[in-house]
């Protein structure tokens, strides 16, 4: 996703996916963002999935929504999440009920636009078992499949 694509993408909808982690830190948190971006209103929505391989493995999922601001060739991305609690309804059907309040916050600085060049950083926090965990100084990178697509299509 080249800078020209960023500038031309003022209408329509596009999808982007990021891995947010601290490279070289074994056992650290890993956040995967799968997002739909709607440029006319600068709105973003999608899903956040946080994993952490420890003695008590963590898998946190939350639908997210937010907005972005353009700052030159960079993007400031702001997301919030409201987790859905699955409950067993009448006649054995799964029903989703929104929990009150937010359970996820994300602030990201994407250098060079949506392609998230080197130096793109994020901080996020999530609510798990009644306690907030804050993760700071994480690197943002396009997901592997998007990086390979960008390279193979010569978009950089």
Automatic annotation (TrEMBL):
InterPro entries documented for this protein: DUF1842
UniProt xrefs under Pfam families: DUF1842 (PF08896)
Residue ranges occupied by any DUF1842 domain in the UniProt entry: 12-132
Protein name as annotated: DUF1842 domain-containing protein
UniProt source species: Chromobacterium sphagni
């Amino acid at each position: 996703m080249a800078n020209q694509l960023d500038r031309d993408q003022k209408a329509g909808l596009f999808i982007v996916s990021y891995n947010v982690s601290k490279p070289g830190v074994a056992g650290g948190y890993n956040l995967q963002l799968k997002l739909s971006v709607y440029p006319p209103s600068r709105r973003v929505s999608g899903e956040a999935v946080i994993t952490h391989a420890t003695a008590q493995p963590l898998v946190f999922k939350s639908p997210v929504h937010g907005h972005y601001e353009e700052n030159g060739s960079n993007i400031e991305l702001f997301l919030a999440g409201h987790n859905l609690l699955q409950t067993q309804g009448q006649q054995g059907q799964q029903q989703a009920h929104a929990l009150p309040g937010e359970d996820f916050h994300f602030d990201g600085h994407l250098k060079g636009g949506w392609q998230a060049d080197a130096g793109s950083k994020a901080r996020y926090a999530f609510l798990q078992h009644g306690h907030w965990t804050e993760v700071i100084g994480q690197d943002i990178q396009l997901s592997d499949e998007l990086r390979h697509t960008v390279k193979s299509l010569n978009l950089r």
